[in-house]
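In response to reviewer comment 3 from the previous cycle, which asked for concrete evidence that the modeling workflow produces usable outputs, we include below a single protein chain processed end to end. The sequence was submitted unchanged, and the resulting structure tokens are shown without manual editing.
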Amino acid sequence: MAANGKVKVGIIGSRFEADIHAAAFQIMPEEAEVVAVASPTAGHPEALAEKYGIPRVFHDYREMLKEPDIEMVTITAPNRLHARMTVDIAKAGKHVVCEKPLCMTLEEADEMIDVCRRQGVLLMYAEELFFTPKYVKAKQMADEGAFGKLYLVKQCEKHFGPHSPWFWDVRQSGGGALMDLGCHGIAFCWWFLGRPKIQSVLCHMGTYVHNDNTQGEDDSICILEFEGNATGVVENSWARRGGMEDRIEVYGEGGVTYADLHMGNALPTYSEYGFGYAVEKAPTTKGWTWPVYEELWNYGFPQEMHHFARCVRGKEEPIVTGEDGRVVQEVLYAAYESARRGAKVQLPFRPEGVKRPIDLWKTELDG
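The workflow returned the following structure tokens.
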């Protein structure tokens, strides 16, 4: 593989998240270029390739891995496939960018980390909140002492449900809103506080709106206790109408800051007739809406992929890795267990024989 020039990238997947990855690389094209896409669904990778000018299309990602010039592969496939794909990519000698959550089980997480280490490739965990400009600014201020000793960090992400059908199927996703969205908040609170030891997890969840669509939870609240007398609160929902909500609150003994990912970058708009697009998960553009601009930049996706490409070239050290994803995975385990018990779960927590995190909450699930 080349030691200089643009990093050649292959994408596994062809729908919503794959589109974000392809767009992100084009927004910041200095370090990398997408040269291939792989997806088994006829017509889908072809459509993505046409939209972004991607020259090569595959229907089996393993065939794409045979391409000698591809140096980094991003995974946007269902959660149940992350571990197998990561191992295959690493054994092909290519660096890995794995979407969140890292995988389904702690055993898979350990295997992914171990194989990538032994193969001498990077395993980078695609947690874009570490790159979200507003949130990065908040952390910069916190690290400079603006708020004094931090005692509470909150992260909230809510909308009315995911784009792709597989998210609703716990056999493929491993859980519901907590698994899908909570992984962001767990990682964020831990990172923002400086990666302290997580002592305990308390979680409540339920399925309130989407009983016909999923066996998973569609609303959850999770409280993390950290070493050093700090708390993280993670709120998630697939049951919130009105589009996307993504915000943080940071409290210290000497100050406070709030950041709303959408409101500060939105245009309050009223339309009788509607228009093309307002914001992710918004169900309509008629009436009052809050269309955003530079949406992917405000989320941090281009900055994230630019950083990962620079890591492949040795220009930067990865900010977020498979080890971070493993920490999140253990907290997810503890959160589902806590929801079943109705009590705190102390960490470390590693039960054996878990197929998917949600099984720790609902032991009677199908499949």
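The domain at 7-129+301-321 is CATH 3.40.50.720 (Rossmann fold). We consider this sufficient to address the reviewer's concern, and the full set will be provided in the supplementary archive.
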